[in-house]
Design a protein that fits this description.
The protein is mainly alpha-helical. The chain has 5 helices and 2 strands, in the order E-E-H-H-H-H-H.
């Protein structure tokens, strides 16, 4: 069984889980099931998380194991955090910044700086 199959091998569309089946008692559960948590990560992202946990969060150790730089480790952590820990306030914050620009309270440069700080 391929537990990492997320995309259709024909058209590359997202696959949906619509059935779970128990081979022991032959019970099937049908419906639309969400893939969440670590399963929503790509295979490469899951491997990175595995290495990060095995290194007990030591970024320098992850660098050595994977042969990548400190900024690359940080970028991958940020990418994974965005997937696993979405911030519901980001859209609201962006709208507030746009409103401040429209009202003349801040410049575009200040808005860009605020957006960078929020990420």
């Amino acid at each position: 069984m391929n537990d990492r199959l997320q995309y259709c091998p024909v058209c590359n569309g997202n696959l949906e889980i619509i059935e779970y089946h128990c081979p022991v008692c032959d019970t099937s559960i049908k419906g639309k099931f969400m893939v969440g948590g670590l399963a929503s990560l790509t295979a490469a992202q899951q491997e990175f998380v595995r290495i990060f946990i095995c290194a007990q969060g030591n970024i320098r150790e992850v660098e050595k194991i994977m042969g990548i730089s400190y900024p690359t480790v940080k970028n991958r952590l940020t990418e994974i955090a965005r997937i696993l820990c979405p911030s519901p306030d980001k859209g609201r914050i962006s709208l507030e910044i746009l409103e401040k620009i429209e009202q003349g309270k801040i410049s575009v440069e200040e808005a860009l700086q605020n957006l960078k700080e929020d990420n």
